[in-house]
Automatic annotation (TrEMBL):
UniProt name for this protein: Beta-mannosidase B
An individual GO BP term: carbohydrate metabolic process
Keyword list, A-Z: Glycosidase, Hydrolase
Gene Ontology MF: a single term: beta-mannosidase activity
Family: Belongs to the glycosyl hydrolase 2 family. Beta-mannosidase B subfamily.
Length: 679
């Protein structure tokens, strides 16, 4: 039975009750706050109302008493900058929550009803300004005058059986998001309007919420009775969510304009006046008439017609306006993940890559059936619902890795593939956040953080809240300070008429990012290694990372890689390790750039690596060091799982790493890495 009541039902008796409250805060550019509290009563009886605003320590900071009300009441308050604490997204400040308390009493002083609502005071805007040096406009979120690069995830229902979701499960998921250095979550339009606990926890943790209306990947009718139902559902949810400081955008649907484009339905973006109910895309009436009017009437939250939606007369695939679902890696044209830089949009609200979950999760769904414990088995296929997943997984594997097919190896290689793919996207797109007027990419939301059942999917954390390696590589790319690199081959001909003679030069580019609001002086530490000899080269440079932006740090020839004059000349296997060091020598960010595809690398014998893996004296940490560069270390143990601090680690000589491992309890640690002899 999938219909009927599925949430708690209560029966209340009353004489007069507060039917509805509408608390709107308007914050000026100077951060002065105006708070309007409107409320309505169930009866027209004359009552006396009290409205108070309490700070996070439950102290009354302002209020109005003895308000004489019949059916509608209103109280207004002004709070100048400095007299209250603004709410900020995680990483930019605190998340103070204020309490608005409304009480109504009769003439004899008997309290008839009290309503309490938590609010946060913040100024949130979507900025779509013209850009310097590039076509199009920004699509960025600004909170309290701070432009925020939004690194986050898409959210689907966290269980196929919604009644099993508890506040504790929501908190565990959302805490994982914050612990992974993410600051935004998108509630996908193909799911549900989430439970109150979800948004309350986002308020507490400082997670920005992109909220879709629940229309997804389809074409909806617009006849009168359906529109009335849509209006009611939208009104109820806007009223329920409007007081949450975390909710910064309502989007009309998920991919419905994209579907209309693909089926060539009536969609003239220059036409804003027609009755769209008379076209082959009637749902446009919902997204451009019904929903925006509901949002405008009942909230101060920004409305966006769809996700993706470009606006300015552009199709949803336009990369210079609005938000973009970039599925030409995995879906679409199945581009190499190395092309993320040319696939960038102004705000990439969906992109992804599949990877197997933790081997414990795989064995859970196998239920002990060893005959099905291989990648192509029927049971495995039943636990992957993506169309064409076998071809696509193997396409990206065979293009990039020499890999094995035993299930442990297949789990490892798909996970490393996912980790490399997604980290590359965040790294390259964060580079595009170049400062005011040059926010060429202002956000990246991976599809997806979670699963609703044990399955192989695009999720970076599986159903049992076990993070995949991709979770950790994304976490590294969203640290306050990061360093990135690309290597690209540049072919030069002596003149425009010659094709036989040329030189191939490998160009290395290095940049750093800084999400804090202050410039940061750091040392750029760069070491290049030849994987097959003892050659190495090191240089350092004092640099300044611009605040809330990326900074270009180096562009030049790849050290140790000679110019080539023939395509048949095999380039040297040069690995470049780059770190950002503070004044004390602490590592603020690190990244190793390897030649790709990895399948062409002849890795050194394991015995020649000098790899050392030891458990710390506390039994809850792992110490790693090596004498040769190693790519993609994943740690594992037998038995009960461990909460790892990091995974998919690249290790180089002279840069030992210590990884926290809560729950390790001194057990032996196993390691997997590229070139570990399994393929």
């Amino acid at each position: 039975m999938t219909v009927g009541p599925w949430k708690p039902i209560t029966l209340e008796t009353y004489d007069t009750r507060i039917d509805d409250i509408d608390i709107r805060s308007t914050i000026s550019e100077q951060l002065d706050a105006h708070v309007a509290v409107d409320f309505s009563l169930s009866h027209g009886e004359r009552v006396i109302a009290t409205v108070q605003i309490k700070d996070p320590s439950d102290q009354v900071i302002i209020g109005q008493n003895n308000l004489r009300v019949t059916s509608q009441g209103k109280a207004e308050f002004k709070l100048s900058k400095g007299t209250y604490e603004p709410w900020y997204p995680v990483g930019y400040g605190k998340q103070p929550l204020y309490t608005v308390e409304i009480s109504v009493a009769n003439e004899q002083g008997k309290v008839l009803d009290t309503r309490i609502q938590k609010i946060g005071l913040r100024r949130a805007r979507i900025v779509q300004d013209e850009l310097i040096d590039q076509e199009g406009r920004t699509f960025l979120f600004e909170v309290n005058n701070i432009r925020v690069f939004c690194g986050g995830s898409n959210w689907i229902p966290a269980d196929s059986f919604l009644t099993t979701m508890t506040p504790d499960r929501y908190r565990a998921w959302l805490q994982l998001l914050v612990d992974g250095n993410q600051n935004m979550i998108r509630v996908w339009g193909g799911g549900i309007y989430e439970a109150d606990a979800f948004y309350e926890i986002c308020d507490e943790l400082g997670i920005l919420v992109w909220q879709d209306f629940m229309f997804g990947c389809g074409q909806y009718p617009a006849y009168d009775s359906f529109i009335k139902s849509v209006e009611l559902e939208a009104e109820q949810n806007v009223k329920r969510l409007r007081h949450h400081p975390s909710v910064v955008i309502f989007a009309g649907n998920n991919e419905d304009y994209q579907v209309a484009e693909s089926y060539k339905l009536d969609l003239d973006y220059s036409d804003e006046q027609s009755d769209f109910r008379q076209t082959t895309f009637p749902a446009r009436h919902i997204y451009e008439r019904v929903l925006p009017s509901v949002v405008e009437k009942f909230s101060n939250i920004h409305y966006h017609r769809s996700s993706p939606y470009s606006g300015f007369g552009k199709p949803t695939t336009d990369k210079t306006y609005g938000d973009l679902h970039q599925w030409n890696v995995w879906h679409g044209s199945q581009e190499p993940w190395h092309n993320w830089d040319i696939l960038a949009g102004r705000f990439v609200s969906e992109f992804g890559m599949e990877g197997y979950p933790n081997i414990r999760t795989v064995d859970y769904w196998l239920g002990g059936n060893k005959a099905e414990r291989f990648p192509q088995s029927r049971t495995m296929n039943n636990h992957n619902k993506a169309d064409g997943f076998e071809r696509r997984l193997e396409l990206y594997l065979v293009e990039n890795f020499k890999h094995a097919f035993d299930i442990e190896s297949y789990v490892y290689y798909t996970q490393i593939m996912q980790a490399e793919t997604l980290a590359s996207a965040y790294r390259l797109w964060r580079r595009n956040w170049k400062g005011k007027g040059r926010e060429y990419t202002a956000g990246a939301l991976v599809w997806q953080i979670n699963d609703c059942w044990p399955v192989t999917s695009w999720a970076i954390v599986d159903y049992f809240l076990r993070p995949k390696p991709a979770y950790f590589t994304i976490k590294r790319e969203l640290r306050p300070y990061t360093v990135g690199m690309t290597r690209k081959e540049k072919k030069t001909f002596p003149d425009e008429l010659s094709a036989a003679d040329f030189t191939i030069e490998t160009v290395l580019e290095i940049w750093g990012t800084n999400s804090t609001l202050s410039e940061k002086k750091v040392t750029l530490d760069v070491t290049s290694y030849d994987l097959h000899s003892s050659w190495s080269e090191k240089w350092t440079k004092d640099v300044v990372l611009a605040p809330n932006a990326s900074t270009e740090l180096f562009s030049g020839e790849l050290p140790g890689e000679p110019k080539r004059t023939k395509l048949s000349e095999v380039p040297r296997t040069v690995v470049v390790s780059t770190r950002l060091l503070d004044d004390s020598g602490a590592v603020l960010g690190r990244y190793s750039n390897w030649p790709e595809p990895f399948k062409y690398i002849t890795f050194p014998a394991v015995k020649d690596l000098g790899l050392k893996v030891s458990v710390g004296s506390d039994g809850e940490s792992v110490h790693l060091s090596t004498e040769k560069p190693i790519k993609g270390i994943v740690l594992e143990v037998e038995g009960e799982d461990v909460q790892w601090e990091d995974q998919a680690v690249d290790l180089v000589p002279g840069d030992a790493q210590v990884i926290s491992a809560v729950g390790l309890k001194g057990r032996e640690v196993k390691v997997r890495f590229l070139g570990d002899g399994t393929a």
